Sequence to fold (473 residues):
Amino acid sequence: GEVPVGADPVVAARTAQERLAMGLDAAGRLPAAVAAAQQALESPADDRHTGRTHALLAFMHANTGDAATALSHATEATRLLAGRPAEMVAHVRLLTGRLHARSGDFATAIGEFRAAAVGAEANTRAEALRLYGHAALDADRPDEAIEPLTEAIGLWSGLGQPRPVAHLRAALADALGRTGRYDEAASVGEDALDGLSDPDDLPARIDTLLLLGVAYRELHATEAAIEALDEVARHCAAADNPAGVGEANARIAEILDGVDRDAEAAQRWADGAAAFRAARLAASGDTPEPSGADAAHTGAADESGAGDDGDGSDPAERAERVARLAVDELRAARNAALSWQWAEQPERALAALPAADAAARVAGTDRPQACWEVAVLGYDAGRILANAERLDEALARTGSAVTLFAGLRASGDLDPAPTTVEIAVRTLHARLLTGLGRRADARSTLTALLDELPPAAEEHRADITALLAETER
Fold:
């Protein structure tokens, strides 16, 4: 509207300048809009009027990406407006909360969102509670997220907004799952999926399916968990995302291992290994070579790197991604061999070892996680080979694993005391030495292990002592 006749000329000029700033902003001329608003701020005015100009500048600077300046103006606006007009202050607090959340200061963001929700109109309160719930999840405070997300679902439903409701249900399912309320998480997650059908909703749908995979597993609903994760694999495959198919299959394999469906688990582990290999080769710029294993498997990218095949990325980031995928491939290939062993199919377990060994050569031992996986492969291969009565080969594998675990402890990458898996491999190594007639070496191995045994592993002492006694007969 027009400036009233007889209005203070300074106020009239400032108001006109603010309107110019808003018009320039609406026209997409942001730098000119900021300049006009800044000029308005230089005119004298009461606190409420000055606070309104600070609010205008806060939003404009946020749109330019200048978060620090936006926060400065937002803080002044909140102080000067002193709660009036309430709706403007609420929106300034929402902006302030978003800026703090983007910088990782979730605690401050939560405070702003909570304040914005107090006494706000329904649509503003709905948005404030939505942001509050997400910030609580980002701050790893899932218990706190449940109440605002639940209320936000009711408010957005009342506003007739089904899409935000579906996304809020996905977030609430996440919060419930992270607090161990798996039954409720599964129910809310299922409701969320019904509304996550738009192609733009696919990332949220995949996250919800992954959550359902966990919830169903905890609820012992094995087939439902597999179905959810298989859908993830299909989406990843359709997106030409080789590490997600690998991750989905690895999760399914873990579930199948947990219910003693070992042969099925072994195949899923093998599928996962092949998919991770395809992802690794794509990330490194190599072309996968056709092989019997590759011909039988599909591939895709892991959930944290979905859609990122490494092309055009920073060389250091690409190298890190390739190394991570190599470890994923090794873990899956190693577990494929071991699951075949558990499935009482020793020939298939032996046949799976070369793929695991090839993955281990690629992974190397320079990185602690890769070194740990290679060491565990030595233990698992030792068990498989010992079961096939190939004791010399088994001994070489366990000996290598013992050396790698010792190196990890010496470098500080593992606790100084032997871990459970290291105790197991050293015990197996001693059994193999005994079986090959090298009793003195077995005694030396077991005596050293007893000396290093940590208090938390005392349950192993009796078995090790009994094995030591056998070497003296």
About this structure: The CA atoms of residues 29 and 57 lie 14 Å apart. The two ends are 104 Å apart (CA to CA). Residues 315-342 form the longest helix (28 residues). Confidence is low (pLDDT under 50) at residues 1-6, 289-310.
